[in-house]
Design a protein that fits this description.
The chain is mainly alpha-helical. It folds into 3 domains: about 110 residues, no CATH class; about 170 residues, no CATH class; about 80 residues, no CATH class. The chain has a two-stranded parallel ribbon. It starts with a helix and ends with a helix. The mean pLDDT is about 85.
Amino acid sequence: MRRPPDMTLQKLVLERMSPRTAAMSNEEIEQWIAALPEINDEIIHFTRQTVFGSLPDRLVIRHLNQFCMECTLMLNALYDYSDRRREMEQLYEMVLNCVLVVFESHRQNYRKYLDLNVSMPIILYHAAARKIEDGIVLMVTAMTRYHAHKTLQAVVISKMSNLLKNGSGTWHQVSYLEKLQQYIMKLCTGGYENINVPLRHLLVAANFNTPGFIAYCKSCMEEEMGENYEIRDQYDCLYRHQRELTILFDYPEFLKFESKQLKVKEVLLQYVNSELSIMDRKYRMVNENKVVDPVALRSKVSVSISVDALAYFFRLLMMAEITTCSKNELILFISRNFCTPGTGERDLSLKSIENKYRQVVKNTSITVKSILSKMLKQLNEEFK
């Protein structure tokens, strides 16, 4: 739906002010300058009548979005008119201000009708992008002071640091990043010593559904799972994440960052539920095929070496690909089935085995090397 005020303003911007058309006389410039306030008022008045008149909502929505698209077109054209005659400066500034005023009036008063997933005018995008990028250094300093993980920082910053380089963006994503920056800064003024978990919860609740953030969340879950050796503890870990995601409410002021992708919670819940299903199938088969040895339930294998040497010995078996289970399964096996001098029948500490498995000192390597040499000597004597 087009109106005379719209058409008049578009004719001025896209035709008469274009460098490709004949230059305006001083008299015509003065006429346009005098007419602009009336054009401004007519557009705002006509739009108010349209919105609050008898037209159905679908026509109102179409009209308002069409007008905003036309304003974007005019603002982009004005942005490109860099070679202006000195005589045109006053008219240019007044026209630019006129379009910005009516555009801002529409966006502020009729926001609920507008499509936020359309590109911003370049002049407004550059101003907003520059403001966001200027705030990055302060935000990174704050996140670092509160010990936010470097990877998590990078996930957030990556969407803010290239806005000017990108050249254009939608109203929704720019507004989203502005609010996200404010929320992160507010989080960094609270009573937290470490904001990793609160920051991750914020990004989930705000539906920051970027591939980088989703991958980071999955890696955190996998890392936490890797710290649990007992099947029961692994289940508890997944169920804890499942409950955490289920009860975490979305922030209503944030829409999905990637509007065409699934919500963060949906993707992560699918991942958690899938992992639980895999564990169910895997360990159901193990339990069905398991043969219980009564002797194994009553005693452990006693060894004469320390936990350090035992852990390193099994690490060498894994490195040589003699054992094919996972590291966690191996550490759990050592804990439950071996006793070293002075430990008695109680399980060896999983954390102790993990530390000694990962960090080997020279004395331990010498001890294991001596054991392997003794075994090799025995082998040579038996098969001369």
